[in-house]
Write a structure and sequence with these properties.
Blueprint (H helix, E strand, L loop, with lengths): L16 E4 L7 E4 L4 E5 L7 E4 L2 E4 L5 E4 L5 E5 L6 E5 L1 H4 L3 H9 L5 E2 L5 H18 L6 H18 L16 H16 L8 H8 L3 H12 L3 H16 L7 H7 L5 H12 L3 H6 L3
Antiparallel strand pairs: 1-8, 2-7, 3-6, 3-8, 4-5, 4-7, 6-9
Helix pairs in contact: 3-4, 5-6, 6-7
Length: about 280
Amino acid sequence: MDYSQYEDYGFERVSAFNLSTGYEKRSYQAHWHSYGEILLVGPGKTNIFQVNRDTYELVEGDFLLIWPMEMHAIIDADRKESLVIQFSNAFMNSLFDLQRIMHFYRNLHVLCINSHPELVAQLRKIADRMKETFFSSGPDRELRCCMLLMEFMLTLDRHRDEFAPELRGEETYTDSVMRRMIMVTDHIKHNLTADDLSQGAMAEMAGISKDYFSRIFRNVTGMNYSKWLNTIRLEKATELLADREKTLTEIAMLSGFQSISSFNRVFHAEKGMSPGEYRSLMM
């Protein structure tokens, strides 16, 4: 099996996890896909990457986090000895804690070995175990790799205080409150076209005050409710962009946007381009 052609691997339909290495070319054009990637940077003097509108020059041992449906490109980097870990968005969304971590760190793309040596060392060990497991012949390798992926995410989350204050969440919540939050977030994701998805209505559904609901969202997801809701709508929209038979207006409506103009405005603010331009760059 050739593991070097990772961009063409449609694993989101058949698998939750993929891992690859050994690419000869040093660059890859801007693109996006419905799965996420964790890239362990290889050796070399030049390792330049782009995620959304930001460019990063990294060194060997750094991690690059590319969340599902983010535009990214490899400008010039060692790809022969780099390691690319890919994970299904559906898998990440299958557990609230994974959703929480993914949304909380949505704006975090780089883990530098020089800035966070202890964390990166721990994550490197997990990544090495993923590689060893993935290239083994065991029939349960996907399950074991997914378990290691969860360990990777939990390890990252345990170090959240190392990052900027806006990423921190200092409050903890009871199992009862978290179950109600899971119920509400699941309701939102399956009812994006509902008439009332206001913060007040969702707080009432969860059986908690609006202020407490707002605080939970800020601490658990790293963003306020309005931004989180737009993020979920954009995730749905980018998923629907893969269906070439759907018009942009249909996609806007199915994602819960009230008009094509608001859809275009929010999409451009987040992605830096129009939905049509973004669609043209889909893998």
